[in-house]
Structures are given as C-alpha cells and as structure tokens.
C-alpha cells in the first residue's frame, strides 16, 4: 500500500477517533436530570465521585478522560475503513484491556506499594496489590493482542511484551498536564503514513481531541487513558516493524522503565530547555513554587501521592477544598504498575 493511501486511512481514523472521544467524554460528563453539571463533571454527584480528584491547585478534576479516550479509540478502530481484521481486533483488545485494568487501579488502588519493587515486595508478603493485578491483566491482554498481529510464537511473545511495556511506559510520563498526551502524539505521528495507520490514527485523534481538557486541568488521563494510549502505540509498532526492530524497541522500553526506578524523568525534562519548553506548551502557569514531581514522585495534579511514586512528598491541598483526597489519584506515576 502506498504511503499516501496509508496516510489517508490514518487521518480518517484520527478524525473518527476525535469525534468518538469527544462524544464519549461529553456523554460521560453530562449531568443527569436533577444533578448540576458541577455535580457530575467534578464528581460531587454519587454516580461520579469515584472519578473525581482534587489537583494541586485545590481544584476539582475528573478521571473520565481516560475511559473516553479508550472508548473513542475502540469505536474509531472498528469504523475506520480498510483496516485488516486482525489489526482491528488487536487494537480494540489492547485498548480495552489496558483501559479496563488501568481504571481498576485508578479507582481501587492504594499507595501501600510503589513501583515494581514495591509490588514484588508485597507479593512476597502474600499481598496482591491492584498494581500487580493491573500488570498481570495488561500483560495477558497484550499477549492476546500480540498474537492477533502475528501468530508465530516468538513474534507473538515479542509483540505482547512490546504492547504491555509501551502501556506502562506511557504512564510514566503522566505526571504533568498534557505530558503523556504529547509524548504519545509525537511517538505515534510517524506511523500515520505507515502500514499500521489504521491502528494508530484512532488513538492519536482521540488523544488530540481530549488534550485541551488535560492541559486546562479539567480532566486527566489516569491509568485508564495513559495505559490505553501506550498499548495501542505498541500494537502499531508490532504491526509495522520487522522482528529485529521490534526487539530493539522492546529493549528501549524495558531500559526506560528500569531507569525510571532511579532517574527522575521530570528532572531531566526540567533541566533540558527544549524539552521543558515543549512540556510547558499549552499548560496553565504554575500557581507558585511547588514541590518537584519526579518520574517516581508526586502526581502532577493531585494532593494525594500516587501509588508508585517514591521520592517526592505529596502536595497537600486545603481541607475545605479537598475531594476524596483519601482516595489515591492514579494518573501517572513512575512505574504505574
């Protein structure tokens, strides 16, 4: 297939993904009869309070961006014309699995264990954390999606590891408004004209459509959105690259994930002017001096320490403004397992 046709297919998928994600987000945050928009969108109503968080400004935000991103991606992947059936189903499987297990960790997770070390330590003590469940679930759905892309055992295994690893890696960047979305858009853009355009287009469109909500600090991806975005990028790489390139990319993903246990991605970005400038594009000005978050530290918008951070103390919010601050906000974190 020519690059021009692939690009057209990718752009069509992106348009469908943007429309579907915006529609899903609007419907999810629409106030039912008798409730105000503030009750639903910001989580004051009983039907939405599981998705509500309070950011470091003391403002209420919603985690519904993540499920909307995944829903828009899946709908567009099913509707985009000309996508091979196996690639279509691999995309839906990866996005659904990553978002589902990510949402479980978003809602039910605690801060008792952080990072791979924390979860492995908890397992050694006989404790099964929500992060461990998420890792296992995304790993299994990643393997299933990888086998849909390529049936040969070795390729299926490499693909599955790449999909699951990419899901986790994207989540490491979800520590500032819009950061994970920008990383995903930059990483996926070259694939719009490649053989996996029908897989990557929908998730890029959905991500771009919801980016203003993220940058405006009205909503956040959470594990559901960041994991889904990373997983679909992994599917597109698995479908487009030869085995040696996939193995090399998997090595890079594993290397970055391990590095996040020891190196602060946020500090690296802050210390690199071009990266810092890109990271700040579209973001609201900071309210004042704040404790630095790290790839293993406090969440970028929550007064609650994320479950996988470890070097930065949480930023507290005023008690009168806090909403569910006892419930861990799981939008990002170092190794958000």
UniProtKB/TrEMBL annotation:
Residues 277-337 are annotated as: Disordered. Residues 1-20 form the signal peptide. Keywords: Signal. Residues 298-311 have a biased composition (Basic and acidic residues). It comes from the Bacteria. This is Uncharacterized protein. It comes from Nocardiopsis gilva YIM 90087. The lineage of its organism: Bacteria, Bacillati, Actinomycetota, Actinomycetes, Streptosporangiales.
């Amino acid at each position: 297939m020519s690059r021009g046709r692939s690009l057209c297919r990718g752009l069509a998928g992106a348009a469908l993904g943007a429309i579907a994600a915006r529609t899903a987000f609007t419907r999810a945050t629409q106030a039912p009869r008798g409730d105000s928009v503030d009750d639903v969108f910001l989580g004051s109503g009983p039907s939405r309070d599981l998705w509500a968080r309070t950011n470091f400004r003391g403002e209420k935000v919603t985690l519904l961006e993540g499920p909307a991103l995944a829903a828009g991606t899946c709908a567009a992947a099913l509707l985009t014309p000309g996508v091979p059936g196996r690639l279509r189903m691999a995309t839906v499987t990866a996005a659904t699995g990553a978002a589902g297990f990510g949402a479980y960790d978003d809602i039910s997770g605690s801060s008792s264990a952080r990072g791979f070390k924390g979860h492995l330590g908890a397992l050694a003590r006989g404790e099964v954390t929500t992060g461990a469940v998420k890792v296992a679930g995304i790993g299994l759905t990643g393997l299933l999606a990888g086998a849909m892309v390529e049936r040969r055992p070795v390729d299926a295994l490499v693909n599955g590891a790449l999909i699951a690893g990419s899901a986790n890696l994207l989540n490491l960047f979800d520590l500032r408004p819009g950061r994970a979305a920008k990383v995903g858009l930059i990483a996926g853009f070259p694939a719009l004209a490649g053989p996996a355009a029908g897989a990557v287009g929908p998730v890029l469109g959905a991500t771009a459509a919801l980016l203003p909500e993220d940058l405006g600090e009205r909503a956040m991806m959470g594990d559901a959105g960041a994991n889904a975005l990373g997983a679909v990028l992994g599917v597109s790489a698995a479908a487009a690259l030869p085995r040696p390139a996939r193995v090399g990319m998997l090595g890079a993903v594993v290397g970055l994930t391990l590095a996040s246990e020891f190196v602060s991605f946020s500090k690296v970005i802050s210390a690199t002017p071009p990266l810092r400038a890109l990271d700040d594009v579209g973001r609201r000005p900071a309210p004042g001096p704040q404790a630095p978050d790290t790839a293993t530290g406090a969440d970028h918008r929550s007064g609650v320490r994320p479950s996988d951070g470890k070097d930065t103390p949480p930023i507290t919010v005023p008690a009168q403004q806090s909403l569910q601050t006892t419930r861990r906000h799981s939008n990002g974190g170092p190794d958000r397992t």
